[in-house]
Design brief:
The protein is built from 15 helices and no strands. It has 363 residues and is mainly α. 42% of the residues are buried.
């Protein structure tokens, strides 16, 4: 893709290509290639200002560097601007997927410091009806601080779930945070903040669950629930050894993932490949097709919880082992079923088989 060309959609098409390539390499277990294209998508989205859409600009601002690719300032309509909004959040979901896989820090660096002003994504009809806010600021910051109640489209909920998964992963990947929580034997302020956000979001999803959801959005709603429960596991699992409550919360979340997985339709796109995207918009294919965005890392998180529990002596004495074993095997059966044509899934299944004796009985 020649980003120096004059084609009006060159930047969005470049971002689209990087996103799809990253998911493609992820599906095929090519970590370095997937990471490279994810970084490229992040770089393009930030350098072209996609995180500043509808931001209230100061009266005098310095012009962007000539070397930075920029999107045309003149927009045809709100639908075209909606394409840019969707593109940014598709990149954020991709970025946070890689964070969860690698348990690393965000390629977006510190989003709260950089600042994301782009409004939450909307449904196509809402863009057509010109419902984008005239001014938008501090979108993610408002969500994390519970000062904003905007963003309830399926696309927005997917992005929020990705933000929560990133927050939990980054916290639990920080040795200082873990050591501080264990040493104090009480949740830190940051731990409590993230847990509160996750639980509040879960309560919102209960309301959405009772709303009319399009058939095409059903799989994405399930994936949002899976991501949210995985965020609970990511946050609590490092503390299960010393904190009975974290052990309980991890098990509850793993059970929820197992039940959601068991209830998947046979035709569900979630079952096809390695976290799930939304349907491809007709007007511009930026968001990855659902079969590129996978539940593998979410299933693995739940499996780790069950396998850890099966090794515990007190779990044997309470008679809960058959329950955990059944739930574990229900997830493993899904993973095994689709590992033949999915190298990344095959890698995860092999890792589980090799590292956890509790999984050997399944094969």
């Amino acid at each position: 893709m020649d980003l120096s060309s004059s084609h009006p959609h060159r930047i969005l098409q470049g971002i689209q290509a990087e996103v799809l390539l990253s998911y493609y390499y992820l599906t095929h277990g090519k970590v370095l290639g997937g990471n490279y294209h994810a970084n490229a998508a992040v770089s393009l989205s930030l350098s072209s200002g996609l995180h500043r859409i509808r931001r209230a600009e100061p009266s005098s601002s310095a012009p962007p560097p000539l070397s930075s690719p920029r999107l045309p300032l003149k927009l045809v309509d709100d639908t075209e601007e909606g394409e840019r909004v969707d593109a940014f959040w598709a990149v954020l979901v991709l970025n946070n997927t890689w964070i969860a896989i690698q348990e690393s820090y965000s390629m977006f660096y510190d989003l709260q410091t950089i600042g994301v002003d782009t409004p939450w994504p909307m449904d196509a009809l809402e863009y057509q009806l010109q419902l984008l806010p005239s001014v938008s600021s501090g979108t993610i910051k408002g969500f994390l601080n519970s000062t904003s109640i905007e963003g309830f489209s399926i696309l927005a909920l997917h992005a929020k779930a990705a933000v929560l998964l990133e927050q939990a992963t980054v916290y639990a990947s920080n040795p200082d945070e873990i050591e501080g929580t264990i040493s104090d034997k009480a949740p830190t302020t940051e731990f409590s903040r993230i847990e509160t956000m996750i639980e509040q979001f879960k309560s919102q999803l209960l309301l959405v669950d009772h709303m009319e959801v399009k058939p095409s959005e059903t799989d994405t709603l399930i994936m949002i629930q899976l991501m949210t429960h995985a965020a609970t596991i990511k946050l609590h699992f490092p503390f299960v050894e010393r904190n009975p409550r974290s052990r309980e919360k991890s098990l509850e979340a793993a059970q929820a993932i197992a039940v959601l997985t068991h209830n998947l339709r046979s035709s569900s796109s979630i079952r096809i490949d390695p976290i799930v995207g939304v349907s491809v918009p007709n007007f511009f294919m930026v968001t990855p097709p659902s079969h590129f965005d996978s539940p593998q890392i979410l299933w693995t998180a739940a499996c780790d919880v069950f396998m850890d529990e099966l090794k515990r002596p007190d779990s044997v004495t309470t008679g809960n082992n058959p329950q955990w074993s059944t739930l574990l095997h229900s997830i493993l059966s899904q993973m095994d079923k689709f590992s033949a044509n999915n190298p990344f899934m095959k890698f995860l299944v092999t890792r589980l088989q090799k590292n956890h004796s509790a999984a050997l009985a399944f094969w």
